[in-house]
Design a protein that fits this description.
By secondary structure, the protein is α/β, with parallel strands linked by helices. The chain has 3 domains: 193 residues, 3-Layer(bba) Sandwich (FAD/NAD(P)-binding domain), CATH 3.50.50; 62 residues, no CATH class; 158 residues, FAD/NAD(P)-binding domain (3-Layer(bba) Sandwich). The protein is 26% helix and 24% strand. It is built from 10 helices and 24 strands. Strands 5-2-1-13-24 form a 5-stranded parallel β-sheet, with helices on one face. The chain has a 5-stranded parallel β-sheet with strand order 15-22-16-17-18. Strand 19 and strand 20 form a beta hairpin. Helix 1 packs across helix 2, helix 6 runs parallel beside helix 7 and helix 7 packs across helix 8. The protein is globular, with a radius of gyration of 24 Å. The two termini are 30 Å apart. 44% of the residues are buried. The chain binds flavin-adenine dinucleotide and iron/sulfur cluster (2 copies). The site of one iron/sulfur cluster (SF4) has 13 residues, from helix 4 and helix 5.
Length: 448
């Protein structure tokens, strides 16, 4: 990437960071896009279909991922993290740590022969598939990854964890491009930027904070994100809703797991779960026409464009919406029983289930405090990064020149995330433009 114009730094390459980077680069300013994972894409790359239009998530995301990978003005720094930020609006100096992949990205063709040969093939928990599948120690998170280069997982590779793999390195022997390189070390790169956009996204609450739902005890209790992988054509069951090879007959969805609950420390509404649970109910109806589907809800918040209509459609797809918060899930024989107080009928009900899906709360990322310290950002009482003013400066942070985009500022769906990313990009471009005019001014003075 070579450009005389001032550059922007975007931290996090989920849909928010991708959109912001593309908008700034398309306007002619260079962008450093730093992503801590081996691929760009964030949570959206894990989704199956998206509400309310039911577009295939990877069909709409992958072209944007490819665009950031190929854009001449975007320098993609995956498997990397920002470690220091100094300076001020118009002239930040940033240090980025590039973690070793143990694979030469210029040689790797993404053929996958190393993963097939790896001694740990089929033995490492596949984090991208939320533990529903297994992979090798050398891997790409998913087939559409950008960049499509392999990474050796330092926590799973036999050589990197125990100092020995076997008589030879299976992956190295299998690689036709001689790309595996266990001599790689971390690198530190310094960049100068005029503006920064923070787009580090969100986490989901650990459902074990609600032990009454038996997550981690009963294998047929899943989270919404696990259901996305189960339902996705690129997931471990190729999109079939199967548990232990069998189709569930009774499926129960539970809203607000952890959200709106002072006991879990998440008093707020997570905003996306009513709608993704409706989407999941629709997907089950589509894939399992005879399944009995029950949704337990507190109240349904279908606030976005086309959302109420989508919820209405799902209700008419033989999906039973029951108002009430389940109090317990227990095993009876080989099935689960969801016990709840139906607050409309005013009585306790029990619903048998083969599959229970928990709509878990959206929470700030576990390293939110560390990122806030690194960048000097304020956080609101809920732990998300604080905007300068909720109505009039919704994408500015408290630090001049640093802007917020997506779920790092609070839970939101994809349309709101993209809208906020575009607003953050526009605000950052104001800073870049001013920095450029300042530079031009000083150049003209020198020339005169
Ligand atoms: C189960 C489920 C289903 C959903 N379904 C839908 C749907 O159908 N329709 C819809 O509109 N929305 C849906 N959503 C919401 C959607 O996932 C979010 O709106 C979207 O992913 C937010 O994007 P983001 O870029 O803000 O965050 P993320 O997707 O979380 O991306 C953040 C990125 O930043 C990276 N990162 C984090 N920290 C750092 C760091 N320090 N340095 C570098 N990189 C970092 C992460 O690795 C990640 O790639 C769903 C969410 C869930 C959980
Ligand atoms: S060194 Fe061994 S365990 Fe590690 S990636 Fe290669 S084959 Fe797999
Ligand atoms: S075998 Fe070599 S070229 Fe093929 S994916 Fe693995 S590291 Fe890359």
């Amino acid at each position: 990437m070579s450009s005389q114009k001032p550059a922007a730094l975007v931290i996090g390459a989920g849909i928010a960071g991708i959109q912001a980077a593309l908008d700034i680069a398309d306007a002619g300013f260079p962008v450093y896009l730093v992503e801590r994972e081996p691929s760009v894409g964030g949570r959206m790359s894990q989704l199956d279909k998206t509400f309310p239009t039911l577009d295939c998530s990877s069909c709409i995301l992958t072209p944007k991922m490819v665009d950031v990978g190929q854009h001449p003005l975007i320098e993609l720094m995956t498997y990397s993290e920002v470690v220091t930020v100094e300076g001020e609006e118009g002239s930040f100096r940033v240090t980025v740590r590039k973690k070793p992949r143990y694979v030469d990205v210029d040689k790797c063709t993404g053929c996958g022969l190393c993963a097939e040969a790896c001694r740990m093939h089929g033995r490492v928990i596949d984090v991208f598939n939320r533990g529903l599948g297994k992979r090798a120690a050398v891997y790409v998170p998913f087939p559409q990854a950008v960049p499509l280069v392999y990474t050796v997982d330092p926590d799973a590779c036999l050589y990197l964890t125990r100092g020995v793999c076997g008589k030879t390195f299976k992956c190295k022997d299998a690689c036709p491009a001689d790309a595996i390189d266990f001599e790689q070390k971390e690198q530190f790169v310094e960049v100068e930027v005029a503006a920064i956009i923070v787009a580090t996204g969100f986490d989901l609450i650990d459902p074990r904070t609600k032990p009454e739902f038996g997550y981690g005890v009963y294998p047929s209790v899943l989270t919404g994100l696990e259901f996305e992988r189960l339902s996705s054509a690129s997931g471990p069951t190729a999109g079939k809703v199967l548990l232990n090879g069998k189709e569930p007959k009774d499926v129960v969805f539970i809203h607000c797991v952890g959200s709106r609950d002072p006991h879990t420390g998440v008093p707020y509404c997570s905003r996306i779960c009513c709608m993704y649970a409706a989407k999941h109910a629709h997907l089950v109806r589509d894939k399992l026409p005879d399944a009995r589907i029950t949704v337990f809800y507190m109240d349904v918040r279908a606030f976005g464009k086309g959302y109420e209509e989508f919820y209405d459609r799902v209700k008419h797809e033989r999906v039973m919406y029951r108002r009430g918060e389940p109090s317990e899930i227990y095993r009876r024989g080989d099935r689960l029983v969801v016990r709840a107080e139906d607050t409309l009928l005013r009585r306790t009900v029990e619903v048998e289930a083969d599959l229970v899906v928990l709509a878990t709360a959206v929470v700030p990322r576990a390293d939110g405090a560390a990122v806030a310290d690194l960048l000097g950002l304020a956080r609101s009482p809920d732990g998300f990064f604080q905007e300068a003013h909720p109505k009039f400066r919704p994408v500015e942070s408290n630090r001049p020149g640093v802007f917020l985009a997506g779920c790092c500022q609070g839970p939101k769906d994809i349309p709101d995330t993209v809208a906020q990313a575009k607003a953050a990009a526009a605000s950052a471009m104001g800073v870049l433009q001013r920095a450029m005019e300042g530079e031009r001014g000083s150049l003209e003075v020198q020339e005169a």
